[in-house]
Every structure is written in structure tokens, then in C-alpha cells.
């Protein structure tokens, strides 16, 4: 980054890391914002298109403010260099569809696991313009721990959802019979009739509905 050479070597090394951490922290927010945008617009691809247009609207003023020269393709380049835009569309669409299902933590953990596996492959074979770097046992172990973390988080999320569903079923009031004498007393007290499942209890002013599982009939 420009200007970092004016700082001490330790600080110059921490600033890029801090900026990277901040940019990484924005990824789950981006996924949530795009998912909400997709629900508002009615389809994930509309949200992807709008997100990319907003990005373009932000970048163009920056190009003008920084006086960036016009692009030049005189040097040429490999054909696969245009695939970055396709990958961006794929990632944004997957994020806005799956992030709400997996949750912010589960989605980002899965993304990081995929990034680790992809990065190891790119380094090992020197693909996408990266210099070839051998995959060491330490790097493999680190990637395996990340993948294991994704599996643990997903199992924990599924177990937590099942537990909440069991608790919700347990907390529901049990259906009770409503004898004829109770109905007569309720009508005499001016109470509304209800469907099976309402629990009626005697109160100071007559029979009243203690818990209701739905909308009572008039």
C-alpha cells in the first residue's frame, strides 16, 4: 500500500492485515444485504444485477477522482483472465441464496473452507497467475482444520434447530376437551366460543380462555 514505507516495519505489516480483516468482516454483511435485496426484488438474479450495478456506480467516481488512465489491452493476456467477472456473479448469487439458510457464521466458514482448498490447488499447480508453491503438510493440516470447523458448525446448527423444534412442540398447550357444561357457562358469561384446543379456566368473572392456539370463532 502506498505510504506504508514511512512507518516502522512492524506497523507497516499490521496495517494491510487490519485492512484485510475489515474487508473480510464486510463479507457476511454483503451476503445479508444481497439476500434481503433478492427478497425485495423477487429473484436472486435481479439482486445480483443490481449489486453489480451499484459496485460500478461506486467505482466510476473513484476512477475519476484518482485520475486513473484509460485501460489498455495492447499487451494482451490469457483468455481466462475474463473469468473473474463470471466468478463474481456466481459468488454473489450463491451468497444471497444460501447465506440465509446457513446463517452468517456457517456461510462464511464454508466460504473460507472453499477458499483454502482453492488456494492450495492454485499454489500447488501455479494456476491463475500465482507462482507455484509446494503444499506442505502444515498447510494441508491448516486447511483440514478449517474444513473440520465447517463440519462442526453445520452439525451444531442442525442440532440446535432440531432442539428448538422439540422445545416448541413441548411448549404448545395440550388440547383439552370442552364439556357441554363449560360451553353453557361460557355462553352465560358472554365469552366467545372456541375450537378444540383452547384451555378454559374458571375466573372471578366466569369462564375465560387461558391459552389459545389460533383465532377463536365469534
UniProtKB/TrEMBL annotation:
<dbReference type="InterPro" id="IPR006750">
    <property type="entry name" value="YdcZ"/>
</dbReference>
<feature type="transmembrane region" description="Helical">
    <location>
        <begin position="140"/>
        <end position="159"/>
    </location>
</feature>
<feature type="transmembrane region" description="Helical">
    <location>
        <begin position="12"/>
        <end position="33"/>
    </location>
</feature>
<keyword id="KW-0472">Membrane</keyword>
<feature type="compositionally biased region" description="Low complexity">
    <location>
        <begin position="172"/>
        <end position="181"/>
    </location>
</feature>
<feature type="region of interest" description="Disordered">
    <location>
        <begin position="169"/>
        <end position="190"/>
    </location>
</feature>
<dbReference type="Pfam" id="PF04657">
    <property type="entry name" value="DMT_YdcZ"/>
</dbReference>
<keyword id="KW-1133">Transmembrane helix</keyword>
<protein>
    <recommendedName>
        <fullName>DMT family transporter</fullName>
    </recommendedName>
</protein>
<feature type="transmembrane region" description="Helical">
    <location>
        <begin position="45"/>
        <end position="67"/>
    </location>
</feature>
<dbReference type="GO" id="GO:0005886">
    <property type="term" value="C:plasma membrane"/>
</dbReference>
<feature type="transmembrane region" description="Helical">
    <location>
        <begin position="106"/>
        <end position="128"/>
    </location>
</feature>
<keyword id="KW-0812">Transmembrane</keyword>
<feature type="transmembrane region" description="Helical">
    <location>
        <begin position="79"/>
        <end position="99"/>
    </location>
</feature>
